[in-house]
């Protein structure tokens, strides 16, 4: 098949296509080859692709309980890089009734308390023309906004992602917000989401540790769950049964990715592109091996370059 830049126009005169045309053509050809509607392993937080492994479902159930209880002050979700923490909390926010909850999501938490407080206030009161200048005034304003929400039957939940980057003093001051209460019930719930260092950060602050009413740690997927994860994403992308990877390829994929969803996505995406470019109809163990070896070599080159750069 000719590439777009070689396809004759009407009358047999060849025409040129810009890069966007070529990219669109390649995308269409890729999807047609694999009988898909969309690419299945892109680095997006598209909730259609969320795989409810037993532990991810348990994490989600616990977080929904944390939200519905409304009395637990603080929750903490941790996990290794790429294990699905952010998309799990996105599913949580999507699952909560907007008539009963106001969800504020902070995608990065490595800021001062004042900066995070200001962001939360603007999210809760986007039409405000003026914010109190003092820290005390802003805390009181936040309390009033939470009281107003509670009077309308809504509970405020603040999601703080990348919470392992919280400065110690910021974490300490966030504890102040858990003191907000109306008629003996907390007015808001904070959920800390982060990598394993978050647990050490919290353990070093006894006041915060004692306030955490629920915690959960996400682990990498087991081998069977990795295979089910791949099948789920392929079916969500439009494939009829999701069986494009040979069984041996899935076993190798699990071992190479260590069961980490983000690594599964990266490797599976490259395998599909490699097989498509080669005209293969399935992903075999050999294709997986070739891609894995190339990734390993490239990652080592990047690591070596970083070491050399730091030494100069």
Task: Describe this protein's structure.
The protein contains 12 helices and 7 strands. It has 312 residues and is an alpha/beta fold. The protein has 2 domains: 165 residues, P-loop containing nucleotide triphosphate hydrolases (Rossmann fold, 3-Layer(aba) Sandwich); 90 residues, Helicase, Ruva Protein, domain 3 (Orthogonal Bundle), CATH 1.10.8. Helix 10 crosses helix 11 and helix 10 packs parallel to helix 12. The longest helix has 27 residues. The chain is elongated, with a radius of gyration of 24 Å. The N terminus is likely disordered. This is General secretion pathway protein A. GO terms for molecular function: ATP hydrolysis activity.
Search tags:
alpha/beta; single chain; Rossmann fold; Helicase, Ruva Protein, domain 3; 312 residues; General secretion pathway protein A; 7 strands; 5-stranded parallel β-sheet
